[in-house]
Design a protein that fits this description.
The structure is a single chain. By secondary structure, this protein is mainly α. The protein is about 75% helix and about 0% strand. It contains nine helices and no strands. The N and C termini lie far apart (about 50 Å).
Length: about 170
């Protein structure tokens, strides 16, 4: 039962798996880094169910790898979504100046979602979340791109050296 909630070996094992999977993709360091960044950027948006499509579109525009983009969308998951949603909603409200206008009144999200009317949910929820997703998406996308570009470039170079050393020993 515990394995359903917490991965065996902890989160470090999950990160090692993703690192190995990403470094072993057969693409340029730019394509891999841009793809993962696109997936992470898409995960910041409130469009659950469309993150893959959005990630693929962003990856296409950035000349990124589509598999890497799909892997990058793992950033948005049941553990991170509550934090992502809270952060984007708060940032969006601050950008739109809604925090001052609300005057401490709370939003009854359950009541809004019961009727599932997009017009009623757009202004108080989706619009601030969409606008609020832009700054963290750009910042995290740029940071991940820079980090992964270096990691992938060095990892691919190390792998080429190991393969070359293995071939020269067997010759």
């Amino acid at each position: 039962m515990r394995g359903l909630i917490w991965p065996r070996g902890g989160l470090a094992r999950v990160f090692r798996y993703f690192k190995i999977r990403i470094v072993r993709l057969t693409a340029s360091p730019h394509a891999i880094a841009a793809g993962v960044a696109a997936g992470i950027m898409a995960s910041w948006t409130p469009f659950i169910g469309f993150h893959f499509l959005l990630a693929f579109a962003i990856a296409f525009l950035l000349a990124g790898n589509m598999v890497a983009a799909a892997l990058g969308t793992a950033f948005g998951n049941p553990l991170t979504f509550p934090f992502i949603w809270a952060a984007t909603w708060e940032i969006g409200n601050r950008i739109l100046g809604e925090t001052a206008r609300r005057g401490g009144r709370h939003l009854d999200l359950v009541r809004l979602l019961e009727h599932a009317d997009l017009k009623q949910v757009w202004d108080p929820v989706l619009k601030p979340m969409l606008i609020g997703s832009i700054p963290p998406a750009l910042l995290s996308g740029l940071a991940i791109y820079l980090l992964l570009f270096l990691v992938v470039r060095n990892g691919q170079a190390r792998r080429r050296r190991q393969l070359a050393a293995g071939r020269s020993k067997s010759a």
